[in-house]
From TrEMBL:
InterPro entries: AAA+_ATPase, ABC_transporter-like_ATP-bd, ABC_transporter-like_CS, ABC_transptr_haem_export_CcmA, P-loop_NTPase. This is Cytochrome c biogenesis heme-transporting ATPase CcmA. The keyword Aminoacyl-tRNA synthetase does not apply. Keywords: ATP-binding, Cytochrome c-type biogenesis, Membrane, Nucleotide-binding, Translocase, Transport. Pfam families: ABC_tran. Residues 4-208 form the ABC transporter domain. SUPFAM superfamilies: P-loop containing nucleoside triphosphate hydrolases. Gene3D superfamilies: P-loop containing nucleotide triphosphate hydrolases (3.40.50.300). The keyword Manganese does not apply. Signal peptide: none annotated. It comes from the Bacteria.
Length: 209
């Protein structure tokens, strides 16, 4: 089953063509590693894939919904982890996750959220405003969303391992593997090596001057 179909995508930034005529199809259960040196356009491509920015040309659909024409419908089918963590510094980890669940019509108890935070090494920090947490801890709060029930069939991950310690990297790698084994699809970029015991396919963007 096709989860993501991107056709003929071109992107230009500051008069530089980052990439042209990109075709990318990702099926259920597939892991795609997006490669390319700094500035090659990986983040730009991922943002286009989830509808956060518009390409100069081309179209993208996720689980059959066009991300530009039918963004609301498409947004239920994927989860995106980008450079911005998507959490409020003023809210506590529990409040942040409750808010996110509410926005995404995910019904979970506060206890489930507390258990998830504990599982991710955030015990004792659940009720502290996020601004008082370290960078890695804040990223853990944001990543906790991937442990809560969601209908998403695709995870789009932009440098998810940045600032995470060895234990958390391992935990997230295992979690990604479980998601893939359950039929989920993943596209991710990482400058670190990824140790996921699962077949992967590389998709490379060349730096263009
Ligand atoms: N909003 C923007 N306005 C202007 N230029 C941009 C914008 N976003 C990205 N760029 C430019 O596009 C190019 C590609 O950036 P992008 O972040 O997609 O690269 P990347 O492959 O993800 O790099 P890295 O590995 O460093 O994260 C860079 O030269 C960047 O300066």
């Amino acid at each position: 089953m096709t989860v993501l179909a991107a056709r003929d995508i071109s992107c230009e930034k500051q008069d530089r063509i980052l990439f042209e005529n990109v075709h990318l199809q990702i099926n259920a259960g597939e892991l795609v590693l997006l490669r390319g040196e700094n500035g090659a356009g990986k983040t730009s491509l991922l943002r286009i894939l989830v509808g956060l920015s518009q390409p100069q040309q081309g179209c993208v659909s996720i689980c059959g919904s066009d991300v530009y024409q039918d963004g609301e419908q498409a947004s239920h089918a994927f989860m995106y982890f980008g450079h911005k963590l998507g959490i409020s510094a003023l809210l506590t980890p529990i409040e942040n996750l409750q808010y996110w669940c509410c926005q995404h019509h995910i019904s979970v108890s506060e206890q489930t959220i507390v258990n998830t935070l504990e599982q991710l090494g955030l015990e004792g920090l659940e009720t502290l405003p996020v601004k008082h947490l370290s960078q890695g801890q804040q990223r853990r709060v944001s990543l906790a969303r991937f442990w809560l029930q969601s209908q998403a069939k695709l995870w789009v991950l932009d440098e998810p391992m940045t600032a995470l310690d060895v234990n958390m990297v391992k935990m997230f790698e295992q979690h990604i593997q479980s998601f893939l084994l359950s039929g989920g699809a993943v596209i991710m970029t990482s400058h670190q090596s990824i140790n996921i015991d699962y077949p992967n396919r590389e998709f490379a963007l060349e730096y263009r001057w």
